[in-house]
Amino acid sequence: AKPSPFFHTPPATEADALAILHLKRDSLLPITLRATADDGYAEGAVTNTRFGSFPHSTLIGLDWGSQVRASKVDTGTRGRKGKQKQQRDQDQDDSNAAAGCADGSTKKRKSDEASLTDDISGAPAKKLKQLADGTQQLPTAAKAPIEAGSGFVHILPPTPESWTSSLDHRTQVVYTPDYSYILQRLRVRPGSAIIEAGAGSGSFTHAAARAVYNGYPGSSTSKKRKLGKVYSYEYHEPRVQTLRQEIHDHGLDSIVELTHRDVCNEGFETPEAPSPPKADAIFLDLPAPWLALKHLTRSSPGSPLNPSAAVHLCTFSPCIEQVISTVSFLRKNNWTEINMFEIQHKRLDVRRERVGLKEEGLRGVNASAATVDEAVQRLREVETKLSDFHANKDVANGRTSGKEKKIQSKAERLEKIRQDVEGRKLYKEGNLVQRTEPEVKTHTSYLVFAILPGAWTEVDEQACAEKWPVGD
Ligand code: SAM
Which atom of ligand 1 is nearest to 236's Cα? Predict the structure, then answer.
């Protein structure tokens, strides 16, 4: 099977690989890197963003995490047809050259190389070296500079986290803070079988696929290990089709089995499947989970549950009324350890901040530009002012005018700052402070967890009695 880019990241970005462009915080864009554009356009595929245009030729062959500057050349959003003609002419020239005009061809290639090197001066050295080696195809028509590259992006490998932040939302999705907690509470691990409904946009599906991944069928390790599986169900056909394509494109076909099904009415049994899922874990992100739960019992002949182990469940519901109906069903149907959680995810903004500089008395020191030396210098000045003040007070025999009272209270505040600064270790970069972000994402959904204990039959009891006989 084709290795999934979510589990096996190539050492550097390569053609036809899935990559995530990190435009800015909370703005990520998934792209498939193409060495050539589908329409044969000379410059290869181009991704246009609000931070500029990025020809894929400048994105291939980079270390993951590289910063890439926007192209300084016309990347074809304008005059594409003209460029295509230019490319056809170029192809013609090249084939002429191949037919004998070797000199002309070499000159042309060199001049293109020079102009391109100028044009992508923001590209990392590795890329430029590849261009110089000739191992990278030259976008021969990319010559006319129009405007300076306006921005940059970082190129990241795909992960379930970056996929969640960048995927095309067809529905509400489960975000990383929720699914990381859910998967560990469900004890999902390599080799687990998990049932998921509804699949929606596939955000949870990708995280679950990574959690269960334990090698591919037919691989050398597959004989020794139990392979993990995500049994995913969705009743909205267009969503099924889109997700199925993504699962295929992401090399997850052997790990995720997506079924088009209304699980509330039709249940989870798949008569056509070679064997029932034998799920160890269940995740339900549905409007009425209790309707699906009635099909998740051990009693039915084709039960999709693991018959010999406890099954862990999580339902994900935005409203408390849904929680009440779910919990009521679970109580009446042998589920145990039922409890509900809510993830209150807060992002902490942690940074270094100059000490005491904003306070009165040190106002003259620019907090952002201040160095510790500056701060210490100002503190010395404060100390001098303080001792002058006390000396003057002595002279005035303890009588303090209104103005002097003002000076005194300022001096006291300054003294407090001095003591505060002295008590702390000064870092050149400032002290570490933390704040919660102003825009806090709070409620997403209520998470109901429960466990269905493993089935225990007369045969199990007998075996147990033989193994551990009760003494007389
Ligand atoms: N967990 C998904 C994710 O992380 O991308 C999002 C799920 S979305 C909120 C809920 C999905 O459940 C929708 O796509 C909806 O079509 C599907 N759904 C609702 N009722 C269903 C049912 N009875 N059977 C199967 N799918 C159902």
Answer: 16
